[in-house]
Design goal:
By secondary structure, the protein is mainly alpha-helical. The protein contains five helices and no strands.
Length: 150
C-alpha cells in the first residue's frame, strides 16, 4: 500500500509541475507556438484538456519508472550513478514516445525537438542534483545515528 501512495504522490507532483510549466509557457508563447505544437492549440488562452490528460499519463509512467529504478531490486543490481543514467535514458525515450504518439509537434521540425531535449536535460539534471544532495544528507544522518549506537 505504501508503494501505491508513493507512486500517486510522485505522479501528482510531476503532473503539477508539468502543468504549471505549460501554463506559464502557454501564457507567454502560446500564440507563437500554436502553429508548431498541438499543446498550444488555443494559443495563450488555455491548455487543451486532451493535453492535460496526456501530461497525467506521462507523469504516471515516469513515477512507475522512477519507483522501479529505486526499488530494492534495482538498488541491489545497479550502482546509483548507473541507475540515474538509465532512468534518464528511459525517461527520455518515454518522452519521445509520448511526443510521437500524442503528436505534440511535427517529427520533421528540428527546433521543437532541440528545445524539448534541452528542457528535459536541464530539468532532469536539476532533479538529479537535488535528489543526490537529499540522499547524501539522509546518508549522513543515518551514519551519524549509527555512530551513536557504536
Amino acid at each position: 500500500m505504501k508503494i501505491i501512495q508513493k507512486i500517486i504522490n510522485e505522479t501528482l507532483i510531476t503532473f503539477g509541475i508539468l502543468t504549471a510549466i505549460f501554463a506559464i509557457l502557454t501564457f507567454f508563447i502560446g500564440d507563437q507556438a500554436a502553429s508548431v505544437s498541438t499543446l498550444f492549440t488555443f494559443g495563450n488562452l488555455a491548455i487543451p484538456v486532451k493535453s492535460i490528460f496526456q501530461f497525467f499519463i506521462l507523469s504516471f509512467l515516469i513515477a512507475l519508472l522512477k519507483n522501479f529504478m529505486y526499488s530494492n531490486y534495482m538498488i541491489k543490481k545497479l550502482p546509483r550513478v548507473l541507475r540515474q543514467i538509465l532512468l534518464f535514458v528511459l525517461c527520455f525515450i518515454l518522452l519521445v514516445f509520448m511526443i510521437l504518439v500524442c503528436g505534440w509537434f511535427s517529427t520533421d521540425s528540428k527546433l521543437p525537438w532541440l528545445l524539448t531535449a534541452l528542457a528535459f536535460f536541464l530539468s532532469f539534471s536539476c532533479t538529479i542534483i537535488i535528489t543526490t544532495l537529499l540522499e547524501k544528507k539522509d546518508d549522513d544522518k543515518m551514519n551519524s545515528a549509527l555512530e551513536k549506537f557504536k
